[in-house]
Design brief:
By secondary structure, the chain is an alpha+beta fold. The protein has helices at 3-30, 66-96, 100-106; strands spanning 33-36, 42-46, 52-57, 144-145, 151-152.
C-alpha cells in the first residue's frame, strides 16, 4: 500500500476517534437526573458523577418528622443517582460495551430499582423550624447573621 494513503487513512481514523471521544465526553457532561419523591416532598438533581447539584423541599403543611424526611431525601437522591448512572452507561456503552472499562463504569450503578418506595408514615413534627422554643437547637454552623446584631438560628 502507498505510504501516503496509509498516512491519510491513519489520520482519518484519528479524526474519527477524536470525534467519537468528544461525543462521549459531551454526552457524559450532559447527563443529569432530577427525581421527585413519590409524596412530592423532595426533588433532587444529580450530576453525572453522582454529586448532588440541587435539592428542594415541598413539605406538607402539617410537617414531617426528621426521620421521615431523612428517609425521603436519601431514597430520592439514590433514585436520582441510579438514573444518572444509567444515562452515563448508555452514553459510554456504544464505544466501550463488553469491555473491562464498561464493567468498571457500570459497577458503580446502584442495584436498587427505580420504583418509588412507599411514602413514609404520617408526619409527626411541625416544620416551622427547629429552634430554642421547640427544644431543638440548630448547630452553630447552621446559624445565619441577622441585621440587628449577632447570629440567629434559621
Amino acid at each position: 500500500m502507498d505510504p501516503a494513503r496509509m498516512i491519510a487513512d491513519l489520520e482519518a481514523k484519528a479524526r474519527d476517534l477524536a470525534r467519537r471521544a468528544q461525543e462521549v465526553q459531551d454526552g457524559i457532561r450532559a447527563a443529569e437526573a432530577t427525581v421527585r419523591s413519590p409524596d412530592g416532598w423532595v426533588t433532587a438533581t444529580v450530576a453525572p458523577n453522582g454529586a448532588l447539584r440541587d435539592i428542594s423541599f415541598s413539605l406538607p403543611a402539617e410537617g414531617a418528622s426528621d426521620a421521615a424526611l431523612g428517609e425521603v431525601v436519601m431514597a430520592t437522591v439514590r433514585r436520582a443517582r441510579a438514573e444518572v448512572a444509567r444515562q452515563v452507561a448508555a452514553v459510554v456503552e456504544p464505544e466501550f460495551g463488553g469491555t473491562a472499562a464498561m464493567e468498571f463504569i457500570t459497577g458503580f450503578e446502584p442495584a436498587e430499582p427505580l420504583e418509588p418506595a412507599e411514602p413514609p408514615a404520617a408526619p409527626v413534627q411541625s416544620v416551622d423550624g427547629p429552634g430554642p422554643e421547640s427544644g431543638h437547637e440548630l448547630p452553630r454552623s447552621l446559624w445565619c447573621p441577622v441585621e440587628a446584631g449577632g447570629p440567629s438560628q434559621l
